[in-house]
Specification:
- The protein is built from 1 helix and 26 strands.
- It has about 350 residues and is mainly β.
- The protein has an 8-stranded antiparallel beta sheet with strand order 15-26-17-22-23-24-19-20, with no helix packed on it.
- It is rod-shaped and about 115 Å long.
- The termini are far apart.
Length: about 350
Amino acid sequence: MSYLGRGLEQVDNISKLDNITFNGGTTYALTKDSSAFTPISSNALLVSIDGVIQQGNFTVSGTNIVFNFSPTGSNTCDFIMHYGTGIAFTPADSSITKDKTDFISTSSAAGLQIKGDGTTDGTLQLNCSQNSHGVKIKSPAHSASQSYTLTLPTTAPASNKMLQTDGSGNLSFVDAPSGGLKFIQQQTVSSNTNTINFNDAFSSTYDNYLFLFDATMGTNAAQLQMRFRSGSPTNDNYTGANTYRYAFTGGDSTGGSVSQSSNNSNAWTMGDGTYAAVNIDPPGVHGFIHFNSPIATNTQRTWSGTIVCYNNNDEQRAFSGGGRVVNNTVMTGFGFTASSGDINQFNGRLYGVVNS
């Protein structure tokens, strides 16, 4: 026949607690392997003092045993045994070692889960050998509503590789991309200004640069002008960049042809007085410029590009061409001004072209 009740594995639960050193008090902490221990009741404890089993002369309060007499320092605790089920104790800090843990994952649950507290997202910290520094891996915010798994690559890492996902969270080591663009500097203006500068923009790191921009002028008949800069000029000083030669040609939306040219100029003037006017939706002027070897001293410092200018009649002109700096001054940057009035809006981004 079958029986109701608990199996032996639930009853035969015996623990030997740490001995107590008496000091004349009545209340002492109960510990097991130096960790706080909570007995199920005083009846589950067997205590021996000076070879005499104690019974009925103590109670328990949480993790403490409270005697109704005061054992002195000359008394000896022989042993404390705990019998029964329902053992609960709080491990001391750092008392749980790697040898006592074995987290097992299943198909439906992770072996270890690090939870948030309702305000802070779950975070795993990996410390240095001295535990004085640590790096953290943190869950996305609750507002992102993300639940995904990242699976590490099946191959060992190698030099100059990077991690790539297949869209399902499976990671692999792949070759890092070569070439491309490296962001260097950005200038954004949303209110009227007359001068916008890109200082210390060029260096020996790159031979070629790509500049993307858009602008709207603040005055009718105003034009956007570009100047190179040398050294470390102040905000409105273009000393040393004074001789350009350029030619740009194109057409307009009315069917006409347009051209620009200069054999000796202090600035490249984009468009003419009928374009890049005010009272139109931005941008009034936009385009791209390619700078080649701007800091070189033994080659020509050249630029080329395409710009499009608009006017109030919803007409446009497109220019393509290029130019060069005639003198031998090293160009460390460039800037923009308005031929009259101010620049109302401007956004420009400079990139270095990576060779390999």
